[in-house]
Amino acid sequence: MAGDAFYITTPIYYLNGTPHIGHAYTTTVADVLARWARLEGRQVRFLTGTDEHGQKVLQAAEERGLDPKAHCDELVVVWKNMMERLSISHDRFIRTTDDDHVAVVQAVLQALLDKGDLYRDEYRGWYFVRDEVFVSEKDRAERIAKGDATESDFRLIEEPNWFFRMSKYQDHIAELLRGEAGLVLPENRRNEVLGFLRQPLDDLCISRPKSRMSWGIELPFDRDFVCYVWFDALLNYLTGTGYHPASPDTAWRRWWPANAQLIGKDILTTHSVYWTTMLLALGVALPEHIFAHGWWVSGEGAKMSKSKGNVIDVDLLIDGFGLDAVRSFFLREIRFGADGQFSYQSFLTRYNADLANDLGNLLHRALSMTTRWCGGVPTRGSPDPGLLSIAQKTVTTYRGAMDALQLKEAADAVFDLVGAGNKYVDVRAPWALNKAGRAAEVAATMRDVLEICALAATLLLPILPGKAPEMLVRLGASEDHAKRWVPMLLRGERALDLLVPGATLTVGDPLFPRIAEMPAPIAALYDLSAAPPGTALEESTVPNETPPAPAKADTPLPDMSWIEIKDFQKVALRIGKVLTCEPHPNADKLLVLTVELGEARPRTICAGIRQAFQPESLIGRNVVVVANLAPRMLRGVPSEGMILAAEADGALDLLTVNAPPGSAVS
Ligand code: MSP
């Protein structure tokens, strides 16, 4: 497919709305696909923008005493800022007030009139002001009964209007939808549309009399009317290609049919019925895919809206966790197509799990261990065959998933690779190899781990446009290198042979520092402070009763100094994550660790385990800490807790638990 053109669109957003994670989601997903297509070497056109006409915009402008266009010019900045904050790489931000778009809409209207597909008639019906659509009596009653709307949201309107002969195309579009599995995705949405098309389709009212609503594109053949906002808005996708129905210029065909038109499930009918029949009427090909994704809902399961006060503000998330955290959360948290329940808590948990613990940790281990033991340069060599096959499979899975618009599967493939990388380090134990003086094996291990980081960073470029390039720089490469690597990877070559031998590595600070507590502005706003992650769970509420005597058995239990539960409850055991680990400056047997317990600051703990462990090997491990052992000084260094270890045959191991720092052990 390399070299092919790739055209991708998002819905154009209502200018009057407040940007929130729903809008950010569609736009980010489109951006990931656009960035990947560019890496694949395709010519990309990525269109997003704002929907600026219609009743609500006019009303809002009037309330502010502004001319509607001046009102739009002010509000559009908010949407452009959202794109910028999310690092959206669109090629054009289209506004339905743009001159070329107005010209296209008018020319399309004229062409359809000339073709006999538009006619004027009397209209009588209920108008649902909030969504700017006419609805049937039944629909109106249902919305009111469900509490989605009140009587005052509807107006009974009787007026002359212009209509598009949509019903004429009903059978044709139903047939196409039945025949082309990929036209509307996912499959359940296609079935929904086919179900809808089993009812007779009305013609579409495509005008509004200026006497009632003047903020829109004037019908070129009847100046008393403006175009219905949806009919105008949908055409943005063609304007974005350079299309004009009366122009002989065919350059727009380079981009059309669009490869992917991403929408939310709320606008499925307008796209899979209105839009597709408009295209049929114009004799223009249908897009390859219209993909309707699910909704992000907040805690109670309601769709986000400003009036419900449950809007998740993307700015707060970016401020608190960074742009890449938001983008990777979008992809990893839900399957593309499914609904997602947003919670700040799961956001924080995912940040720490995916980015701090997995990806950040792998990179940090790779860079610091190589620097320490291998002179800080990757060497050349043959990769471990098992790891190589995982890496090759990652590329194939990732690419296939991207092609199929399965964004989560693509992201999961990379994070699985990262997991395999961390496991490889644990199994190969380069610290032990180093201690045993097996330098060649240390070098080979570290080389493989660095290569995994390079491959992961390359495949993460579309998802993490902030940090993936920085990963590459730390690995002694750059985004330009990665661009050259992708074609080789796609040919099935060099999956673990990317890095430039001898390039200088930069260890630096952790790329994704662990965030133990909910960032204050979010905690304050949503009153989440009561339960930040990393907080010790409630003390166990085991009743304070006499323990039963040890079970009678043939073999007696060893004689223990039995304690009661209340004695055990005096010991506060907590999970801690080892952040740093160094030899004690004045004691041969001690290591000095800093351990994160989800408290205001990490603790310093001295542990008598230096004979058993290389300091680096402990970094990132989640250990069990006696947290209420009175602090004391050990040879001039404070020790604020004790780490639990197990001894078997003279070898020590630390108790390791896969739970977040601060979790209580009971
Ligand atoms: N202006 C129309 C679209 C015209 S396209 C020719 C419109 N605008 S909108 O501002 O309401 O944006 C709707 C789109 O925003 C949805 O289709 C979806 O892409 C995104 N989302 C808005 N809220 C959402 C969620 N709560 N969850 C996920 N995405 C949703 O409709």
How much of the residues is beta strand, in percent? 15-25%
Form type: elongated
Distance between the termini: 56 Å
Largest sheet: 6 strands, parallel
Bound compounds: 5'-O-[(L-methionyl)-sulphamoyl]adenosine
| Low-confidence parts | 529-553
Number of distinct helices: 22
Q: What is the mean predicted local confidence, pLDDT?
A: 91
Oligomer: single chain
Which class of secondary structure composition applies to the elements? Answer: alpha/beta
Can you characterise this structure?
41% of the residues lie in helices and 18% in strands. The protein is an alpha/beta fold and 666 residues long. Strands 3-2-1-12-13-7 form a 6-stranded parallel beta sheet, with helices on both faces. Strands 16, 17, 18, 19, 22 and 25 form a 6-stranded antiparallel beta sheet that branches. A 4-stranded antiparallel beta sheet has the order 5-4-6-8. A hairpin with a 2-residue loop joins strand 10 and strand 11. The protein is elongated, with a radius of gyration of 31 Å. Mean pLDDT is 91; it is low at 529-553. Residues 11-14, 17, 22-23, 25-26, 51, 233-234, 236, 263-264, 266-267, 295-296, 303-304 line the site of 5'-O-[(L-methionyl)-sulphamoyl]adenosine. The site of 5'-O-[(L-methionyl)-sulphamoyl]adenosine has 21 residues, from strand 1, helix 1, helix 8 and strand 12.
